[in-house]
Amino acid sequence: MAERTAEQLEPDFLDVRRRSPVTADTVRRQIADPDSPVLVDFDHTIFACNSTELFISRCRPSLVVAVIDFLVRVCLPWRLVPGRRGYRVRDYLCVVLIVVLTPWNVPLWRRAAPALFERYRATGVSAFFADVDRSRLTIISFGMAFVIRGLLRGSEHESTALLATPLLPRPSWFTGGKTTTAVGGVGEGGVARAVFVSDSLDDADLLEVCRSGLLIRPQGPPMSARERLYLPLRYTAQVKYSRWYTLDQFLLVDALVIAIAVTRDVTSLVHFAVIVPLLLLSVMSVYEIGYFENDMHAAKFEERPVLDPSVSRYRDYPIRVQAWIWSAASAAAGLGAAVLLGELDADELLRAGTSWALLLVVLRAVFYLYNRMKTGARVFVYPVLQVLKYGAVFLVFVPTALGVALVMGQITAMWATYVVYRLGGRKGALDRDLFAVAAFLVGAGLLGMASVTHGRVLEDDGRGLENPVPLVAALLWSLARAGKAPVMRAVRAGLVSRS
């Protein structure tokens, strides 16, 4: 509550049309004018939070809601919608799908919302409207009407006129700005005489046409539902690393390396391209708890923690329990797919599942200890974490000798990068992909020498070093990763020269 109160300072008003500050006394006189309708924005203005994000974050079951939120608001390219109106359609569609698929959240919201309004009420701004005749006051928002009405129930604004998004809006609702909405509520003459208070220049159209369009600082900290809805790798992509780095590392490095490591032929490579990402997601869900814990522990105890500024916004992220649920579900899906695709016998399923569960517990325990060690000692535990991450699939499927060399090359590269970082060097100066490829080629060369000298490295079961499919796949992967850095540099240089 201390952080939230600190954000709700006495508001400073700026007259947008005149580009000049306005004193609090002047604002009070303008609002008190009986001939002036008073329009006020809701989110981050009289309510020190975002009502839509708050509603989505509190809907249950959070696993279902998180998937809906991810598919609708992250995966679809709303930025391509012209006129910067895409976010309104995006939020509306997300809320409607949640209401349709989980209708019990509507009555749950109605019960919880009044207390939330009191918790997030922007007291400094609300004080300006305390004595305004309710017949002159209108709350105007692009948020959902039923969400805002729930928040206002039982407050002094329960009977205040509200212009907000209905559950069944006309298509034109999303094409017009707040001026169009306000005219529909108080008429053109009313808008021309109105005082309008908002926290955002997204409402510039209405701020410019009102008699007095007043801009204030956003009340309350930014809030996003995804910071309170767990999805595997969300914390990694939003806080620990970038979204594109996480996607590249998960699919094109970790999953692909492991799939190649256990493949025998083209058919099995296709099968493992389905199975391995599911099993790896299971591992990374538990691994990500360590990431989260590492940041939270560092923020408390390390003298000079290297943390992303957004870490503080994820303090309530429900990762510690829900990560295990997703991990179990991903593991079940991966092992089930392995049985269906014929890569795992059904009578081996219990053994594989038990081994997998034990590995996840060990991984969690090692990362827990790692996070509580002195940073110097972590250098020697870090490769253990990498072995557990990359080698987990080997509990279920037998790797090729070449595959072990490929995985070891990746582990070695990750460890080398970490050592450079811990010794105070610039880890970005080390081309990790090229290092991994070089380490793999060294291992493959040693295996080749042994194969030439002593015959097959493994038994004659189709997994020998001379098997062309894993060898070709590993070499193609190595070529692609080694060429990634120069290609990206050329692309960036081309973009800079064009600009």
Strand content: 5-15%
Return Rg in Å.
29 Å
Number of helices: 19
Query: What is the residue-averaged pLDDT?
Result: 89
Number-wise, the strands total 7
Identify the strand order in the major beta sheet. 2-1-7-6-3-4-5
> Which spans have pLDDT < 50 for at least 5 consecutive residues?
1-7
Q: Structural class given helices, strands, pairing?
A: alpha/beta
How would you sum up the global shape?
A: elongated
Distance between the termini: 47 Å
Considering DSSP H and I runs of 4 or more, what fraction of the residues is helical? 55-70%
- Helix/strand order: HEEHEHHHHHEHEHEHEHHHHHHHHH
Task: Name a few traits of the molecule.
disordered N terminus; elongated; 499 residues; 7 strands; alpha/beta; 7-stranded mixed sheet
In short:
This protein is α/β, with parallel strands linked by helices and 499 residues long. It is 61% helix and 6% strand.
Topology:
Blueprint (H helix, E strand, L loop, with lengths): L1 H6 L5 E3 L4 E3 L1 H9 L5 E4 L9 H8 L3 H14 L10 H16 L3 H16 L2 H4 L10 E8 H8 L8 E5 L12 H16 L1 E4 L5 H6 L2 E4 L18 H7 L2 H20 L3 H36 L17 H22 L8 H23 L3 H17 L9 H22 L9 H23 L13 H31 L1
Task: Tell me about this structure.
The protein is of the alpha/beta class and 499 residues long. Among the domains are: 2-226, no CATH class; 273-394, no CATH class. The chain has 19 helices and seven strands. Helix 8 (145-152) links the parallel strand 4 (137-144) and strand 5 (161-165). The longest helix has 36 residues, at 266-301.
